[in-house]
Design a protein that fits this description.
Blueprint: H1 2-16, E1 34-38, E2 50-57, E3 60-63, E4 66-69, E5 73-74, E6 79-85, E7 91-94, E8 105-108, E9 110-117, E10 124-130, E11 134-137, E12 150-154, E13 159-162, E14 165-168, H2 180-189, E15 192-194, E16 197-199, E17 202-203, H3 207-215, E18 226-232, E19 239-244, E20 249-254, E21 264-265, H4 275-286, H5 290-302, E22 305-313, E23 318-325, E24 337-343, E25 355-362, E26 365-373
Parallel strand pairs: 6-11
Antiparallel strand pairs: 1-2, 1-5, 2-3, 3-4, 6-8, 7-9, 9-10, 12-25, 13-14, 14-21, 15-16, 17-21, 18-19, 19-20, 22-23, 23-24, 25-26
Helix pairs in contact: 4-5
Length: 374
């Protein structure tokens, strides 16, 4: 009997195997916390740093860095630091706040208008969105030409600018007819003061130049006149060409004969030159003051001022108009073409303008200042 019990027990152990021991379960206690941001520099706390908040008791927060008032903490950051780095110590302003800018200034989240300026440099202005700590490096560009003063761009009396040339537009040269030699000397000696500008490089025009006046419908003073040209006959040196401007007819006439004269100034300087470069060229060649040379440059580069779409708004007491240049580039785009509105208390007697336009010249560009009717 005992033998059978032993065999049965042994059979049970061999058949079922021995149960494996499982490892003990270890429970690690992890404390709960909330991440918050510090609003002020206080004791060991640094503004904007993130801390763990474990408990809050009577308004005091127990954090990973110690205790601090819950009022000095916030869930998300509301202020950020702004650094504007300028290599040469340029002046920095934040235009839409009262406090003066200083490196690392704390500002509320939002939009800010930054200005960086320095003498003889282009002012930098830009709106930025501040939603994180921001560091900007701004290097200003040097100005090509700081405002060189106020110049006028007006219709010149005595001359008219047509297709790159200055034409004499005075009746004085119709008072007396003259022979060809006298006409030639008359043009070389002619000086017309128009505004502050002296035009002194006149000469007799060629036949084709005089004919071009008819094509351009120039409406010059006494355009129906028969005028001397500089075109001469090489075989018959006693003859020169005359042109009847009103119908573009021309013919040969003895130089000793008498006819009228209309002089032309060849100011066909390159329009690719900037205003400043052109003014310096005229200043050097003509020995004029710089502002006079600059005014001539405006005339050469832009042509006559043209006023279009004049409208007086009685409700707003203002006059609106489109001001554009006479000349345009190869793409038929005017060198200057902008709409302006200027205050005017009373309705002008006439909306027909002979404009005198005043500009500041800044960075080699015309910046509109004022307009008068004269």
């Amino acid at each position: 009997m005992l033998k059978n019990v032993l065999i049965t027990t042994l059979f049970f152990l061999l058949g079922c195997g021995v149960a494996e021991k499982k490892p003990p379960i270890v429970v690690k206690e992890v404390p709960t916390f909330k991440l918050m941001y510090v609003k002020i520099d206080k004791d060991s706390f640094i503004k904007s740093e993130q801390v763990k908040v474990f408990t809050i008791t009577d308004g005091i927060a127990d954090t990973s860095k110690g205790q601090i008032s819950i009022l000095d903490l916030e869930d998300t950051r509301s202020e950020f630091r702004l650094f504007i780095n300028t290599p040469n110590g340029e002046k920095v302003r934040v235009l839409n706040i009262k406090p003066k800018y200083k490196d690392g200034i704390w500002l509320q989240e939002g939009k800010y208008h930054i200005e960086v300026s320095a003498k003889k440099h282009q002012t930098y202005k830009k709106w930025i969105q501040l939603n994180k700590d921001t560091s900007l490096t701004i290097k200003l560009k040097r100005q090509k030409n700081i405002s060189v003063g106020t110049v006028s761009w007006s219709s010149k009396s005595g001359v008219k600018y047509i297709d790159g040339l200055y034409w004499q537009d005075q009746a004085v040269n119709k008072v007396n007819k003259m022979n060809w030699d006298k006409a030639n000397k008359y043009c070389k000696a002619l000086i017309i003061k128009s505004g502050r500008v002296y035009i002194d490089d006149f000469k007799l025009p060629s036949e084709s130049e005089l004919i071009s006046l008819y094509k351009s419908n120039s409406r010059l003073d006494y355009s129906g006149s028969i005028c001397w040209s500089s075109s001469i006959n090489e075989k018959h040196t006693d003859f020169a060409k005359y042109v009847f401007i009103n119908n573009k007819k021309s013919g040969w006439y003895k130089k000793s004969g008498s006819s009228y004269v209309r002089c032309v100034a060849h100011r066909n300087y390159s329009e690719q030159l900037s205003l400043l470069e052109l003014a310096k060229l005229l200043q050097k060649e003509k020995k004029r003051s710089f502002l006079d040379a600059l005014e001539s440059s405006i005339k050469i580069k832009y042509g006559e001022p043209v006023v279009k779409n004049v409208f007086y708004d009685s409700r707003k007491k203002s006059l609106s108009f489109t001001l554009r240049s006479q000349k345009y580039d190869s793409n038929k785009k005017y060198f200057y073409n902008k709409k302006h509105t200027v205050p005017m208390k009373y309705h002008p007697k006439s909306l027909h303008f002979k404009p005198k336009v005043t500009f500041d010249v800044i960075n080699d560009k015309l910046v509109f200042k004022s307009i008068t009717n004269h």
